[in-house]
Amino acid sequence: QARSIDAWNDYVEESVRRRRERASLDMDVVIDFEDEYFFDWFYQKASPGGTWLDRQDPTRQFWSIYATVMMHGAFLYLAFSGLDWMFFFDKDYLKHPKFLKNQVFREILTAMGSIPVMSFLTAIVFWYEVRGFSKLYDNFERGVAYEVFSVAAFLIFTDFCIYWIHRFLHHPILYGPIHKQHHLWKVPTPWASHAFHPLDGFAQSTPYHVYAFVFPMNKLVYLGMFVFVNMWTISIHDGNFIAKNGVLNSAAHHSEHHLKFTCNYGQYFTFWDRLFGTHREPDFPNLNPRNAIKSAAAKAEKAG
Questions:
Q1: What is the rounded distance in angstroms from the CA atom of residue 50 to the CA atom of residue 301?
Q2: Per-residue pLDDT tens digits for 240-279
């Protein structure tokens, strides 16, 4: 029995040692860069007793990750939503009868209030990734074919999971207190992309984190997918119906979701909605803001 206990202790110590080695090799590329150009200087000034000068200090890593996720998340949201607003969003939606008073301001206010909380929850998971608990790796030794496969697998896996998470968020128990906040915007703008309850946003992001702990993926590819996910989320809220092929869960499909609520739960594709009976083809004439404006004006004239 004593030998078994000693063997178990040796196993645990060896696992911890390997994990620490992996953490030192597997440091997140963004944190590594920001340590060099900002955090080293910052912690020299702010560290209590110099305890956070070590880049491998777990507490320092967590707060560095949190600050990075929050600031970069806010930047990506404001920058890409702003660009989408300027160059792609159809401003006729601002005259849509279901467009709320001060909606853009309210969308931005909601998003900027949620991002710090979502970032905190996300930082907890990223901390475990940085500490070497995930299956993220540094090099490209697996080859181009595997990297391409990992992108496709990431999209299909996360799309399936988000479909069900999103669908569960429409259950009466969860919809009122959590998801309804995002459905205030029946005619969304790019600024609505992150304008939801922080638990809603984090819940729908969990498949991205789960993937990194279950399937091997290059950390740069993983980082790129996180940027892509944010850009995609913005694009499906801009009302610019570029994709009409029925395969992608485009802005048109997501606009139907915002108006009808009980359809098109997928994130990237329509596969799962079609398979599980929740797919709804976009009604393009009804989604056209100019038709909605004319219809509202005709009703007002008839009522007057």
A1: 72
A2: 887 777 899 989 999 999 999 999 999 999 999 999 999 9
